[in-house]
Design goal:
single chain, alpha/beta, Rossmann fold, Domain 2, N(10)-formyltetrahydrofolate synthetase, Formyltetrahydrofolate synthetase, domain 3, 3 domains, 12-stranded mixed sheet, 3-stranded antiparallel sheet, 19 helices, 36% helix
């Protein structure tokens, strides 16, 4: 059986000008980056704004295993299958981070015959968006330290600097550091920390901004530190906004690539869903909806994270109305939730699928379950999942897009089209942003996670009080939580009962426009596993990359 890399190397990639034409873009509206990828000018909105809006399809999943359940693969394969059925289809996914690529998961461009190309470029440096976000973020950190070094006019309290530095590599040794050591010419010593670039508020801002003007407005609101009398210092105070916007100007433009079968695809933005909002850029989604009849996008991890945040944050900001949700499930993940490897474990693990079906139903969005078939799945296990969904009156389809490409997703695509045309979406938000901070957190924790209660540390209580004083308490909440359980404890599998959610602290993403309650042991700087994926990545004398 061919590896992902071998499959990619066997495909003749189409010129990006051909893909742009398929997408409905004019040649002058794209900025080629070589022969097979391009940036898309935001000027295109002026031409397409009166176009009919396509159907918005969100792909999500149950609580996954650490390797993932093939959500991106299903997203790509579904778009290919819809295209094969004669539907004008585009898709959008997030740009992979080097953290997971070199760490636990490997790349994030799909798999088998459902990949986006050029796979190696997308998984590595691509068009430089990650570099631009990292640079803009660290420029702001540098300007803050520079301000303190040159007299500290704003009376910034070095103990209350809340703007970290970032890098797009997982490195646990940088979670807590001290900077400014060495002497008077080397800055003012203070504790600091690093986050991974996808956790940067600038990543969230880039993915929620509607245009350059909106980007600059959001950047200006970023809170970087507090004064000795507890007043916030912003990027605007430090006169950083213009330079940051310049660094982000090209990154704001969506990246156009293609699937293995030549379907146009946007790969733009990459916020994690466990510590950020977990969806590709709003600009790419809005553009894709105006260029297609069916637009497929994904939200990271399960309905308790990416989907909830897509519905309550992204749809609210972008005035989006999802038409359907595809819930990806695998035999492997269900058996994990059943804490075994046999058929009985799968049956026990169905409780996790049940909860995720309920979660999407709460938002009023029609659901179809996509059973992502792996090579060692048995017929009994697949039929068991289908029968479970049938009893719940939820359509389901087995999809093998990994080995068959679009052909393996035809049943799923056909049932999805029927679902959209026969079941109107009654999309609704979960909460009102004007509810109190605790009310919003507890609605999500009790309704979506199934928690009995929420407890707050002293730090979290102080954060809520400060949030109210700063007038930020009317923002949506973007809860940071483990993706592997409905709870904040990754070891509580299935559909746990009688658990509590512990909020350690609340970070203010004033520019992005949401609050980030940190729960459990979640961290914004992941670590590498004992045997990282980087050990298997290499390049030969002919510059052929293997192991991605």
């Amino acid at each position: 059986m061919k590896t992902d890399s071998e499959i990619v190397h066997s495909i003749e990639i189409q010129p990006i000008t051909t893909i742009a034409k398929k997408a409905g873009l004019k040649e002058h509206e794209i900025i080629p980056w070589g022969n097979n990828k391009a940036k898309v000018s935001l000027e295109v909105f002026k031409r397409i704004e009166q176009n009919k809006t396509g159907k918005l399809i969100l792909v999500t999943t149950i609580n996954p295993t650490s390797q993932g359940e093939g959500k991106t693969t299903i997203t790509i394969g579904l778009a290919q299958a819809l295209t094969k059925l004669g539907k004008k289809t585009l898709l959008a996914i997030r740009q992979p981070s080097l953290g997971p690529t070199m760490g636990q998961k490997g790349g994030a461009t799909g798999g088998g015959y459902a990949q986006v190309l050029p796979m190696e470029d997308i998984n590595l440096h691509f068009t430089g968006d990650m570099h631009a976000i990292t640079s803009a973020h660290n420029l702001l950190a540098s300007l803050l330290d520079n301000h303190i070094h040159h007299g500290n006019l704003f009376q910034v309290d070095p103990r209350y600097i809340v703007w970290p530095r970032v890098m797009d590599i997982s490195d646990r040794a940088l979670r807590h550091v001290v900077v400014g050591l060495g002497g008077p010419n080397d800055g003012v010593p203070h504790e600091d920390h690093f986050a991974i670039t996808p956790a940067s508020e600038i990543m969230a801002i880039l993915c929620l901004a509607k245009d350059l003007h909106d980007l600059k407005m959001r950047l200006s609101k970023i809170i970087v530190a507090y004064t000795y009398d507890n007043k916030p210092i912003t990027a605007e105070n430090l006169k950083a906004v213009g330079a940051m916007a310049v660094l982000l100007n090209d990154a704001l433009k969506p990246n156009l690539v293609q699937t293995i079968e030549g379907v146009p695809a946007f790969v733009h933005g990459g916020p994690f869903a466990n510590i950020a909002h977990g969806t590709n850029s709003l600009i790419a989604t809005r553009m894709g909806l105006k260029l297609s009849d069916y637009f497929v996008t994904e939200a990271g991890f399960g309905s308790d994270l990416g989907a909830e945040k897509f519905f309550d944050i992204v749809c609210r900001v972008g005035d989006l109305h999802p038409d359907a949700a595809v819930l990806v499930v695998s035999v492997k993940a269900l058996k994990r939730h059943g804490q075994g490897t046999d058929h009985a474990a799968l049956q026990k693990g169905l409780s996790n699928l049940e909860k995720h079906i309920e979660n999407i139903s709460i938002f009023g969005v029609p659901i179809i379950v996509a059973i992502n078939q792996f090579i060692d799945d048995t017929e009994d296990d697949l039929v068991c999942i289908e029968n479970f969904c049938s009893k719940k009156q939820i359509p389901a389809a087995v999809a093998d897009v990994w080995s068959q490409g679009s052909e393996g997703g035809i049943e799923l695509a056909g049932k999805l089209v029927d679902l959209i045309h026969n079941h109107h979406s009654n999309f609704r938000f979960l909460y009102d942003p004007n509810q109190s901070v605790k009310e919003k957190i507890e609605i999500i924790a009790k309704t979506i996670y199934g928690a009995d209660r929420v407890v707050y540390t002293v730090t979290a209580e102080q954060d809520i009080k400060l949030c109210q004083e700063l007038g930020l308490d009317n923002l949506p909440v973007c809860i940071a939580k483990t993706p592997y359980s409905l709870s904040d404890n990754p070891e509580l599998l299935g559909r746990p009962k009688g658990f509590k959610i512990t909020v350690r602290e609340i970070k203010f993403s004033a520019g992005a426009g949401f609050l980030v309650p940190m729960t459990g042991k979640i961290t914004t700087m992941p670590g590498l596993p004992k045997n990282p994926m980087s050990e298997h990545i290499d390049i030969d004398d002919n510059s052929t990359i293997n192991g991605l």
